Fold each of these.
Amino acid sequence: MSLKDAMPVEKGRLSWFSPNWVLLLLSTIALGAFFGLETASVAPNRIVSGTGYLVFSALGWQGALLGMVLILALIGFSCIAECQEYRDAYKAMLVIVMALLALMPFALMVATSRLVDSDLPQARLGIGAGFWVTLFVLLLALVELRTRLALARIWSWSLLLPIGLLWWLCLSLWLEPLALMREYHSRSEQFSEAFRQHLELVGTAVGVSLMLGMGLALLMRRYPRSQKAAFAILNFLQTIPSLALFGLLLAPLAWLAANLPLAASLGISGIGWAPALVALVAYSLLPMVRNTFIALEEVSPAVIDAAYGMGMDTRQVFLQVRLPLALPVMLEGVRITTVQAIGLTTVAALIGAGGFGTFVFQGLGQAAMDMVLLGALPILLMASVADALLGAVSDFLRPGGAK
Amino acid sequence: MIELSHVTKRFGDEMAVDDVSFKVAKGEFCALVGTSGCGKSTTLRMINRLLEHSEGEILLDGQPIRDFDAVQLRRRIGYVIQSTGLFPHWTVARNIGLVPRLLKWPSTKVHSRVEQLMHLLGLPVGEFAHKFPHQLSGGQAQRVGVARALAADPDILLMDEPFGALDPITREKLQEELRALQSRLHKTIVFVTHDIDEALQLANHLVVMRAGRVVQQGTPLELLHHPADKFVESMLGGVERGLKQAGLTRVADHMLPLSPTLPAQSRVPSSMSLRQALSVMLRDHTERLTVVDPHDMPVGELSMRKLIREPKADQGHDREH
């Protein structure tokens, strides 16, 4: 008789029911959203608001059935996920989630062919709330599955990459009537211009604040008495609302442009990229300086003592010991700053600095939600990609792969 | 040879080290002992100029250490600290090769030296060379720390409570290894510890410090026989001094020829310390022991009665003599 047989059996309790509550909740929400909310809406042109369609009319009964089966399978697997006998439940769920994500652009294609009248050249398909919620919930489920399966960062990326490619392929080749794509096609040049401006602003702001932040952190280490004041100023800068800071910069920069020919020839003026850049750098300084300073400061004193004791000179201690050990935490600062700057640059559109914010604010002004999305989605994507890339670099630089 | 004469260190108004003088001859193992905050670590760190002394003179082979460039000086002196101070972002091999690389040895020479040292300290090259410090146990990390200090074959080794953070069993093992290492390498060692047993076991010259001053110095047996004051006496274990003293002598030194009477049942090897032999007597309720050689052949006997009657002056010899 094995030990297991000797254990008392709990009567009246379902032995297989040991769910992962997070995934159960998420997949139930997905099911609700899939059937309860509009999958898509169709408008004959840009001005008229669209008519919404539920899943049966958008995807037909076959599509609805396929989606239902897959989501029900998710619910089923999440009920037994923590059960000892079904260890592969998480893997199965990963496969299903990936399949659902891969099927979603095709669902849009089905909806397009069913709902959009090909005789109306301006007719467009709007993505409905049901679709968005399902997509969002599936991505959350993916995060949970990644943690449960302890997938390395590189793995989850290599899984997401083909799906991203598939989406891109479907969007650019077959989803012409999608409202988002219609918005894009009517201003594709503006889009790449906005992308360039956004990247430039973020890149320059992060670059400049990295230099300044490093310099400030080093100065603060050299003159410890300045630390309190410096952090107070940086904290204060962080509390000014971004719009107010743009406004505050307007006057001095305009004066500079008017009185200094060099400044004017560089393109500095009260509005445009100059105040945006100054404001972005001002906001980026605190996380940058704080992380750099703490990173350099927190290197174990025993290691530094040993480094000097072994006969390293000051330069060698800094370059070979202190800096490399501080690098992962410093990069963490770069990561926070970059993600923050990508978001803040959106607001910079208000003072004429360009970037994806242009679409967001124009769209808001014209009550054209698809145009807002055309600005907001790339910002979201940029932020996640920057976050993931810099996080991976920081992981890679950790001493000896130590976590 | 290291010589400190009237060395003083002040931090602001506070006197951390006050008029300290001692000499460590070449190949000697000197332990600085004292309670925490007595200035022993400060004294040690002045020798490799991690701290500059305020007054007095520190001589290295007769030359004042201020004549040397501080960085060059440190490369000539091995340094081991309690928390190992290994570089967490470097492999074991790279950590050990640090000083040779600072001295610009050719890389093949560094490589073979690292392997040689890993053998010396019982760290299999294949298993450990590419590990990172966080993958090592406390004892292994400290072995790497010692290997790193020995890498450029310095004449002098400074050790600041190197075994302080280890569990008792690992500590004892590493103490044993250090003693074996020292009997082969004959380095000049200055060793800081608050553990008097460690100091008595390892050193042949003890410097007892208190509140920045030297209270007493001498060989372990000198200190055990004639502690200068109540502080040194309590430091040396008070009434347990007798046992500590016994711990420093071998059974062989007190052995009597085999008597014609029936040999005692309990046997002890002649290489055992007298302290352990006394413990065997207590355990076996006997006052006589048979002393045996490594082949378990009786070579003499040990008698409690005779031991007590031994004249005090003859009581053993310093093991190192």
Note: Residues 313-321 of chain B have pLDDT under 50 and may be disordered.
Amino acid sequence: MPLKKSLILLTMTLLALAQGCNEQSTQTSPSSEVTPAVASRNSAAVDDKPAYGDMLINGSIGDASVLLPVLASDSSSGEINGLIYNGLVKYDKDINLVGELAEKWDVSEDKLKIRFFLKKGVKWHDGKPFTAKDVEYTYKIYVDPKTPTAYSTDFLKVTEFKVLDDYTVEAVYDKPYAPALGSWGQGMLPSHLLEGEDITKSPLKRHPIGTGPYKFKDWVTGEKITVDSFHDYFEGRPYIDRVMTRIIPDLATMFLELKALSIDQMGLTPLQYVRQTNTKWFKDNFNKYKYLGFGYSYLGYNLQDWKFKDKRVRQALTMAIDRESIVQGVLLGLGAVTDSPYKPDTYWYDQNVKKFPYDPEKAKQMLAEAGWKETNDEGVLLKDGKPFEFTIITNHGNDIRKNAAIIIQRDLKKVGIKVHIRVIEWAAFLKNFINKRNFEACLLGWGIGIDPSQIDIWNSKKTGESELNFINYQNPEVDRLLDLGASTYDRQERKKYYDKFQEIIAEDQPYTFLFVQYALPIINSRFHGIEPAPVGIGYNFTKWYVPKRLQKYTIQP
Amino acid sequence: MFLNEDFVRRIGKNKMAMAGLCMVAFLFCVALFENELAPYPPDRIDTSNILAPPTYQHLLGTDVLGRDVLSRIIHGAGVSLSVGFVAVGISTLLGVMLGALSGYYGGALDKAVMRFVDVMLCFPSFFLILAVIAFIGPSIWNIMIVIGITSWMGVARLVRAEFLSIRERDYVQAAISQGASDARIIFLHILPNAMAPILVAATLGIASAVLIESGLSFLGIGVQPPDPSWGNMLTEGKDNIEIAWWLSLFPGMAILITVMGYNMLGEGIRDSLDPRLRR
Amino acid sequence: MRFLVKRIALMIPTLIGITIISFTVMKMAPGDPTSLMTDLNPNMNEEAVKRIRAHYGLDQPWHVQYLKWLKNMAVLDFGRSFAPDNRPVIDKIAERIPITLFINILSMVLIFSVSIPIGVISAVKQNSMFDRVSSLIVFIGFAVPTFWLALLMMILFGVKLDWLPISGFRSLNFARLSPIGQVLDIGKHLVMPIFVSAFGGLAGMSRYMRSNMLEVIRQDYITTARAKGLDERTVIFKHAFRNALLPVITLLGLSVPGLIGGSVIFETIFAIPGMGQLFYQSVMMRDYPTIMGILVIGAALTLVGNLLADILYSWADPRIRVND
């Protein structure tokens, strides 16, 4: 789905954001033995001109929670909100910032002022014009301490916000802040409907009004959410008339629905991708896509725990874990081992970052150097008479993480470390374990933002309760580099800081970086116009279409 | 005592009870000799051979990490049996205690206990169990305890009824008139005579505890990995039902056989005890 | 009428007991329920935490909290959900309860209409082939994990044969179907869920009916009726059947909690947006107000079921006017 702006750096789930090394693995081929309705689906492109109409039915594992981007932090809501709202800026298919609701912008010489010139003639779904007042309201609601939002950090850096005229606004910062521009991609909210209201009680939470390509139609809780194309959309009417998101809380059931052709699109699991979708029938009816996702999984060590204080121990742990076998066994090869908190195929990734390949012998040696020499009768390493034994916690509902943990357990046993695994449901996981620092090691994932700033995860001060440096990583040099990176606009200079940062992280190994997963969307082949790009496939969703002769549903508004 | 020769003879003739007994005995053997019977260690991972269909190497196929399904089912038997026994131990203990007090003393105590039973019976017990387990955290011990304290009501009612009727019998009345202590009467005179229905209820209770445990594990808040539990295995089966039927079929059958074994044994014992139903 | 009033009056202490247990369950949750809400909202400040604590009365001793909670409950105010949608709990439950009730009622109808004949025939022809086969099926029915049955059915009828839809409870084009089409559509969607939810009950009920019937057949008055030379058919249906049926009615009330409890599993598997699914989601999210609301309402539904059963019972057998 069109996730246009992934500013959500810190989502803990791996957002299946599409990107990079795209490969349309399944070439659709003409076929004649399928049912008449789809018989000539893929033949002769002559009359397959873009046409309005039809509906795309999307499968979603969870229901949305709230359809106001400022309040929503779950990916289900995020996907729907992406269709309904626009930001001032967005990332284009090559991950460059371009204007969306903003026609253009000026950044002052000293990088302290950003002035946005808004597009004229943009309408809200209720017909009212979009103006600077809406931007002002949106800014204010994000920084309002009463607003329960997860996205205030960037906007709180704004020291002054000015409305210059109906279509010009200016944000002032007290020092240069490189992620600032991208932060204005957050969805703009309609001030004429929300001003003076308590946003947490607003009816717009369930009946949103935005400026985006699709306008809200209805929401049957736990069942489906429907949006219809907005004919007055400022970038032109989207071809697909309706997008329905069906909530199917179970991936196996969702896959059966896909096979029954009652949903058009879903994200596949590696097993479904490798083992269940290579039949001729699937090739005739669906196109599969595959690209490295914007997120990585890691094993994080609680650095306050005495066992993990020595960096030699952490390096040894990384070397003792056969990460390649996790990628092969759990992801079935649909992923890549990673050694850095950046996405391996992006600009910010440091190609020279130090790697710790699988080497259990060397690991044992290093553990011995760090004092883990003797073993007890179970074969578990001892230091000062205490065994090397710890628990990995991970969240419920993610089999890939659970299975990765089981393989790690096996690998570490080979070098004499005893590992226990606890799978905990999400809310309790955050509340009782992560936020309370009540864990030894955790297996989790971070979404990788498009902007390289990762202060919230690595800064020495971000270790308070509910903050994200929950492993308590402390390194003044890293703090300094990240601050420099955030205040540098020049890309090349900025990259130097982040390269250095990655080198230090690699040496310190506060995490064992595990892998980056591929996003594996599958889409019914009647949809045309899908053009994989570095940012994924959803960026041009409004240009997707179904040729007239292949249209399956007739939409009556 | 109910374990007299007559009973043994009757139950020996009861085909259902015998069939149930065989199934249960079989499971016990499996659980007892799990290490000898399982062809592989249950946690032996082989990522190069995941989701392999049944072959000579792996009679029931392999799972998503290439572990041997047969070995995991064998090791799961122990988990299932211990959950069943401990949970039922707890619920029977609670039920007998409350039922005995209620039936023996009667009066306000009886009223209070029975009211409590009514209230507990009103809750959809699976809801209650799910909520409590999620709150206190899933672990095999928590599951046993929670299933135990949410399923004692039937036993309590039964024991109470038995006590009410046995209490009126001559020999009990005689004991009372001779000034025997309450404890003596309860444990020596009444309880032994109420054992039979308790045994039946407990046997059936094990069956339902096994089912509940598998349901909880299936929903992901039961036994934690990497411990094998039939319910957990079925979750994996569900996720791969189209490509790995063996992952759904065999653990499901293991549950089926276990639960059926206990049910048949329980019902068989009941039939053998209840002379009215005999031909 | 007096019976009814008395019966309803008797429900009140039970209802209070239900709320006490629900409240205890809530107190079992580690820590403070509001900390969950605040933990997930980075911007929740001290002030807001206090406000929420006061709103839920968490700054007061537990008996005061309980009474306050009870007072709100009396007017069906369960508070607002902790889920991000923050809606009133009663709204969330109200929109999901009809489908769950509908499925449960239908499955109960199915249970009764199938299991009673099976039970009667098995009893009358005890040890016949029919009895043996049905006993075996009953034992399997008792022992089958419902989720396993659901999976096997989905594969067979949904995927292999493609006869029935796999999930949800109505089609996408539902609104455009004719009224008859709509009924058929819902019917098709509910075949599997209803069957799965009824299967266990089916086994239990027919077993129960069989043993009741066996017991009744051995009673003196049946022997007398036979001795009088009445034909077997009259004996069985006029005398035995009626009396064997009576205790089954009580089971009607008792089976409500089991059915509702089972809805967690089949609603999750079949993606039916009912109360069971909501409960599972709430438990996973630790949405305490919703969990409590469903627990209380689920138990109250059982009470209503019991009441209905009692009314039915007294109607069917006027001799019985409960005096406890």
Note: The mean pLDDT of chain B is 86.
